[in-house]
Amino acid sequence: MSIFEYNGSAVVAMVGKNCFAIASDRRLGVQLQTIATDFQRIFKIHDHLFIGLSGLATDVQTLYQRLVFRHKLYQLREERDMKPDTFASLVSAILYEKRFGPYLCQPVIAGLGEDNKPFICTMDSIGAKELAKDFVVSGTASESLYGACEAMYKPDMEAEELFETISQALLSSVDRDCLSGWGGHVYVVTPNEVKERILKGRMD
Amino acid sequence: MRCYRHCWNNEARGNWITCWVGEKQNEIWRMRRDGEVFWVLADEFPVGDFVDEFPVGDFVDYGRRKKNCSFLLLLRFYFFPSSLTLQLPSSRKSSNQSRVVNRKMTQSSVDLPPKGGFSFDLCKRNDMLKQKGLKAPGFLKTGTTIVGLIFQDGVILGADTRATEGPIVADKNCEKIHYMAPNIYCCGAGTAADTEAVTDMVSSQLRLHRFQTGRDSRVITALTLLKKHLFSYQGHVSAALVLGGVDITGPHLHTIYPHGSTDTLPFATMGSGSLAAMAVFEAKYKEGLTRDEGIKLVAEAICSGIFNDLGSGSNVDICVITKVRLFIMV
């Protein structure tokens, strides 16, 4: 069994028209036993920047704490929030630093950059950035997520339609994966507001 | 006092920016990679200071240069070669008045960004997990076909755009031709994080070198910096590169293998699709190709890799470097 399949996870982010959505499943397991059904994988860095972390749960939490720390230092020094592409470079550098003993996580970063242009990217566990214009996926359900997103995605969706699309893609993919599921956690972010919704899915 | 210092890479990429004291006392400026200029408490820095590379987020304290400081640093470089931020020897003796800024971490137990270079603290834990039967993750590889050839006016580099994670295509349009200097570009195959990190790092070293010498970078400089780094990691930094550029001595094309060996060739291919592409080159290459003939040949070689090798696919990126101008076609 791979180390990524120890806890199980599914994270996806999609780009819409001046908005983005990021979603994850909620299960935390120890191999085949479920121990929590409300595990948080998506974290807010600032109002227009979210990071979702899939992989080993302990590294998810440690990495999140480190990144929040670095961002707070940045805010103190620069007196403003970090831009999403800068933050992606920061995460990439932190992960590459541990090239020969990596954090066992794959981050998905989503944010609104200048002029409220949505930015998404994902990385492997040693920080190789992959920028995308449409969607990015990560986690144990990533293969079915690739398929579902390719089929359901269309460019320039508004916030409500984007929410429907990303939720359908997430729920149908986690239904095909034993290690992730138990509902979904979706954030849809527009320049003016952040809507957080919990999805109820199959509880198996 | 504390000052935040970075190291500058190039116009638009990388985590690194530089700052240095200007001609007049109290004039300090620093420029971040998107051109934004920051104010720094300038009163306490003397004229002519030159600072070394530090990774983003580093805290440094200004201090006086200790005797034999450069010797100590050389010692550290040789005994702890895992420092990723190699400091060019010339930067140590930049001017008579230059003083080395001493790095001082805060005394607290908070996790501040360490000096640079790799950190190995999770290795023991990962080994323990491996022993318990949990396999290590795969990294993003760039399956890849990368090629280069020398034509009559310069160098043409080509690459496909597929990035794979095992059997899955992770990125359908990734960039494998990396910027090193305005006249030097480098294609990378192997582990994606390694090729990006190594080319970014050498690119920033070249930029600093250009500031120091006041001249355009030479391809052989980039070659030596890359091979030294790769050799010192004995092939564990898995980056196979095709480096090409035009400098004052003419057009050059080199290949660099992950263990640090290099070749100088008139035409070269690397990556999983290299055999397919090399077949095309061996059949059709001749000296003194014109620009259009060269582009056509490179495109054909990459397409051969795309169709015949499963690890390469998607689109063809081509980069033409000549003495006068630089064209990038995607």
Automatic annotation (TrEMBL), chain A:
Q: Which GO terms describe its cellular component?
A: cytoplasm; nucleus; proteasome core complex, beta-subunit complex
Q: Does the keyword Kinase apply?
A: no
- The organism's place on the tree of life at top rank: Eukaryota
Record carries keyword Plastid: no
Q: Which InterPro entries match?
A: Ntn_hydrolases_N, Proteasome_beta_3, Proteasome_bsu_CS, Proteasome_sua/b, Proteasome_suB-type
- Give the record's GO biological process terms: proteasome-mediated ubiquitin-dependent protein catabolic process
Localization annotation = Cytoplasm; Nucleus
> A Pfam family name for this chain?
Proteasome
Q: Which UniProt keywords apply?
A: Cytoplasm, Nucleus, Proteasome
Member of which family? Answer: Belongs to the peptidase T1B family.
Task: Sum up the protein's function in the record's words.
Answer: Component of the proteasome, a multicatalytic proteinase complex which is characterized by its ability to cleave peptides with Arg, Phe, Tyr, Leu, and Glu adjacent to the leaving group at neutral or slightly basic pH. The proteasome has an ATP-dependent proteolytic activity. Non-catalytic component of the proteasome, a multicatalytic proteinase complex which is characterized by its ability to cleave peptides with Arg, Phe, Tyr, Leu, and Glu adjacent to the leaving group at neutral or slightly basic pH. The proteasome has an ATP-dependent proteolytic activity.
Indicate the quaternary assembly.
Component of the proteasome complex. Component of the 20S core complex of the 26S proteasome. The 26S proteasome is composed of a core protease (CP), known as the 20S proteasome, capped at one or both ends by the 19S regulatory particle (RP/PA700). The 20S proteasome core is composed of 28 subunits that are arranged in four stacked rings, resulting in a barrel-shaped structure. The two end rings are each formed by seven alpha subunits, and the two central rings are each formed by seven beta subunits. The catalytic chamber with the active sites is on the inside of the barrel.
Mind telling me what this protein is named? Proteasome subunit beta
Native organism:
Eutrema salsugineum
From TrEMBL, chain B:
Entry's CDD domains? proteasome_beta_type_7
The record's section on InterPro entries has:
Ntn_hydrolases_N, Pept_T1A_subB, Proteasome_bsu_CS, Proteasome_sua/b, Proteasome_suB-type
Gene Ontology cellular-component terms listed: cytoplasm; nucleus; proteasome core complex
**Gene3D superfamilies in the record:** Glutamine Phosphoribosylpyrophosphate, subunit 1, domain 1 (3.60.20.10)
EC number per UniProt: 3.4.25.1
What are the UniProt keywords, alphabetically? Cytoplasm, Hydrolase, Nucleus, Protease, Proteasome, Threonine protease
Q: Name one GO molecular function term.
A: threonine-type endopeptidase activity
Could you give a single Gene Ontology term from the biological process aspect?
A: proteolysis involved in protein catabolic process
Record keyword Manganese present: no
Subcellular localization = Nucleus
Respond yes or no to whether keyword Protease is given for this record: yes
Swiss-Prot/TrEMBL catalytic activity:
Cleavage of peptide bonds with very broad specificity
Which residues does the Swiss-Prot or TrEMBL record annotate as the active site? 144
Q: Which Pfam families match?
A: Proteasome (PF00227)
Q: What does this protein do?
A: The proteasome is a multicatalytic proteinase complex which is characterized by its ability to cleave peptides with Arg, Phe, Tyr, Leu, and Glu adjacent to the leaving group at neutral or slightly basic pH. The proteasome has an ATP-dependent proteolytic activity.
Its quaternary organisation is: Component of the 20S core complex of the 26S proteasome. The 26S proteasome is composed of a core protease (CP), known as the 20S proteasome, capped at one or both ends by the 19S regulatory particle (RP/PA700). The 20S proteasome core is composed of 28 subunits that are arranged in four stacked rings, resulting in a barrel-shaped structure. The two end rings are each formed by seven alpha subunits, and the two central rings are each formed by seven beta subunits. The catalytic chamber with the active sites is on the inside of the barrel.
Please identify the protein, giving its name as recorded.
proteasome endopeptidase complex
- Which organism does this record belong to? Eutrema salsugineum
